[in-house]
Design goal:
This protein is an alpha+beta fold. The chain is built from 12 helices and 17 strands.
Length: 524
């Protein structure tokens, strides 16, 4: 596997396939992981664009880092809230560790702040209220998350910063990245003396490595609020040492020092960033409520979306173009599948004399061969293992073809049966004639006379012999068996029936299969 960056980094044209995910271009990078655009390649043609957090290759075999990422996935999966980016899956494959998250079209608050500062136009206070209120609701959901048994996790984000607030084009702010979060029952624990998070957003107790609770995130939210309003760093100093000194001494700045019009926000920032954790807002939802009531009204989602588009619209459009190309490339059709044991593709193969309506997939199941249609128009990329169901029209064509083939077979069998039955007719007729012309020994004269009288009269239609192959039925008339005769004649002679005694209107009869047969007497 290649690293997250470099000339072999995955792109839209050359994705990296890991498990059931295709990894494409990077969209963000941090100290220990890079976030890529990705594509979930599921079964039955299911595809979905996702964001994939990929641990840097140098950390993939480090137990501490892998445990940290797995903890993040486990914790984030317990948070179900519209203001938190959802975690969908975790993949461990060879030297790769992936955290799969929902893809949100938007940009980080940190980039929005930088763009606004570069243009000299700070974000609208109402837009800031809407963004921060959403982020605080997401934080509160994280703080209130419980485990599988319903026990409070006691989760603390510990890295609340503008980089970890994602503002979508739908106008909704979402919190992400719980990689350094603290929670009860977490497998990875911070070693003594280690500090997790970004220093400029840490409360004094976090710098002192003291026990933390949810108020640490509220402190960080107060610092983020100041930056979003002013586009300035609260603890900007000449060096990191000076910034640390200001944090420890709680030398905070208020929004009104940058712009007097922002004075209504001073009280909220001051309380959120109080040196004493007990003096801060007790919950993130309490801070959001105060912010909306004191500094509102908050901008609507549409107004926030318009602000995002105005600041980073060209970046979002370029990313949308890449996403569209990825989605197109992952749905391009693949070449026909070869038959097992041969190199002949199945496309255009004829089955039972009828052309196939698409490619066929042959699978071995319990020593049976199952034939399935797959669309030749939309399929997954090669090696994706996806078979897209055939179009209904093609499926109906295939069914109609097989039905026609079956009907032709039945008709052929019927014709063969008719021909075999007609072959038995002469022998049966000769037997009947011989019996009529040669009375049995001992027969009385009266019986012979009666037979003669009978032969002189027109023959009555006889009931068909059950063994007879064909039963002919005239239109509107009685059935005549193939073995019946109109006049007894010597053996070997052809029966002669006067034309006047035969119904020749019409001059044919119709058998039980609907076929017409002309009456020989009517053709004379």
């Amino acid at each position: 596997m290649t690293g997250a960056s470099g000339e072999n980094a995955p792109t839209a044209d050359h994705p990296l396939l890991v498990d059931r995910y295709a990894i494409y271009d990077a969209i963000a990078s941090g100290g220990m992981a890079t976030v890529h655009l990705g594509r979930l390649i599921g079964t039955a043609g299911f595809l979905r664009t996702v964001a994939i957090k990929r641990l840097h290759s140098q950390f993939a075999n480090d137990v501490d880092f892998t445990t940290m990422l797995l903890d993040e996935a486990r914790l984030a999966s317990r948070i179900q809230h519209p203001n938190v980016v959802s975690t969908l899956d975790v993949v461990m494959n060879d030297n790769e560790l992936l955290l799969v998250m929902e893809y949100v079209r938007g940009e980080s608050l940190s980039r929005l702040i930088r763009r606004a500062r570069d243009r000299g136009e700070p974000l609208s206070p109402s837009v800031v209220v809407s963004i921060m209120s959403g982020a605080l609701h997401g934080l509160h959901a994280a703080h209130e998350a419980v485990d599988e048994k319903g026990a409070l996790l006691g989760l603390v984000h510990r890295d609340m910063s503008p980089q970890n607030v994602l503002v979508g084009t739908d106008g909704i702010a979402r919190v992400l990245d719980f990689g350094v979060a603290k929670a009860a029952g977490r497998v990875h624990t911070t070693r003594e003396g280690d500090i997790k998070g970004k220093v400029l957003y840490m409360p004094p107790e976090q710098l002192s490595a003291e026990a933390l609770d949810r108020t640490a995130d509220i402190y960080a939210a107060g610092v983020v609020l100041f930056e979003a309003l002013t586009c300035l760093r609260m603890f900007a100093g000449e060096n990191e040492g000076a910034a640390l000194r200001k944090i420890i001494q709680n030398e905070i700045q208020l929004p009104s020092t940058s712009n007097p019009a922002l004075a209504p926000f001073d009280r909220i920032v001051r309380r959120a960033t109080a040196a004493d954790a007990k003096a801060r807002y007790p919950t993130a939802i309490a801070m959001a409520t105060d912010l909306e009531a004191s500094c509102g009204p908050a901008a609507s989602n549409a107004e926030v979306s318009a602000s995002v588009q105005a600041l980073v619209g060209e970046l979002l459009d370029e990313r949308a173009r890449i996403v569209a190309e990825i989605e197109r490339s992952s749905t391009r059709s693949k070449p026909p599948l070869p038959l097992p044991g041969s190199g002949t593709p199945l496309g255009g193969m004829r089955v039972g004399g009828m052309p196939s309506s698409g490619h066929l997939k042959v699978e071995a199941k319990d020593l049976k061969v199952e034939v399935k249609e797959s669309s030749a128009v939309e399929a997954s990329p090669p090696n994706s293992g996806v078979v897209v169901a055939a179009e209904p029209k093609r499926r109906s064509m295939a069914v109609a073809g097989f039905a026609l083939l079956l009907t032709l077979l039945v008709v052929m069998l019927g014709v063969i049966a008719v021909l075999l039955g007609r072959g038995q007719q002469p022998a049966a007729s000769a037997s009947a004639s011989a019996a009529a012309s040669s009375p049995a020994p001992g027969a009385t004269t009266s019986a012979t006379a009666a037979a003669a009288a009978t032969s002189a009269a027109p023959a009555a239609p006889a009931e068909p012999d059950p063994a007879s192959a064909v039963v002919i039925r005239r239109p509107g008339g009685a059935a005549t068996g193939a073995t019946g005769s109109a006049k007894a004649t010597p053996a070997g002679d052809k029966p002669v029936v006067p034309r006047g005694r035969v119904n020749c209107d019409p001059p044919y009869v119709v058998d039980k299969n609907g076929h017409q047969h002309f009456i020989p007497e009517c053709l004379k």
